[in-house]
Amino acid sequence: MRRIAIVGIGNRLMGDDGFGSYLAEALEGNVKGCDVIDLGASGISSLEILKDYDVIILIDAIMLEDNKDIFITKMDQEIDSEEITSTVVDFQYSGSHGLGIQSVITTLRILGYTPEVYVFGCKPYVLDVKMGISDELMSKLDQIVTSLYNFLKKFGIEFDTQKTIEKLKLVIKDSGSNK
C-alpha cells in the first residue's frame, strides 16, 4: 500500500503565505486514506519527515502568472543540474533552517528517495507581515477546499468538505486575525 502525505507549507506570519499550514491543521483528524502534516516553514528537518512517503501532496500559496485561483501540478521526477545548483545555493545562503520546499524535494531525490510529488496551490493576495489570511482568500475557501477534495479523490482520499471549511475558518480566526 502506498504511503501518502498531504503536506501544508507556508509561513503563518506572512499573511496568505501561511494558507497551506492553516489548511493542513484544518484537515488533521478529518482525512481518511493518508497522513496530514503541517510543515509550516520548516527547513531541512522536513527531510526526515517526508522521506518514507510514496506520494507527497504539497498545499501552498503560490504566485500564479495566469491569474488562476488554484493550481495543481505533478512535479517532474527527474533532477536537472539547475535544480541541484539552486539547492546548493539555497543551502549556502539560507542555511538549513531557511531551506525551501523545492530544495527539500530535490535533496530527497539526490538521497535516493523518489516520491511522486504534487503541488496544490492557491493564489495569495497578501504576502506581508500579518497573522491570518486576506479577505480575498477567505472568500475563496469553499472553492479551494472543494477543488482539493476533487483532486484527492483520485488517490482514494476523502474528507468532509463542510467540516474542513468550518474548522479552517476557526483555525484562521484563532490565529489572531479575520475576527
Task: Please explain how this structure is put together.
This protein is α/β, with parallel strands linked by helices and 179 residues long. It has one domain: HybD-like (Rossmann fold, 3-Layer(aba) Sandwich). The chain is 38% helix and 20% strand. It has a five-stranded mixed β-sheet. The chain has a two-stranded antiparallel ribbon with strand order 2-7. The protein is globular. The model has no long low-confidence stretch (mean pLDDT 86).
Tell me briefly what this model is.
Helices cover 38% and strands 20% of the residues.
Biggest sheet details: 5 strands, mixed
**Spatial shape:** globular
- For the record, what is the CATH homologous superfamily label? HybD-like
Mean pLDDT: 86
**Radius of gyration, CA atoms, in whole angstroms:** 16 Å
The CATH topology name reads Rossmann fold
DSSP helix fraction: 25-40%
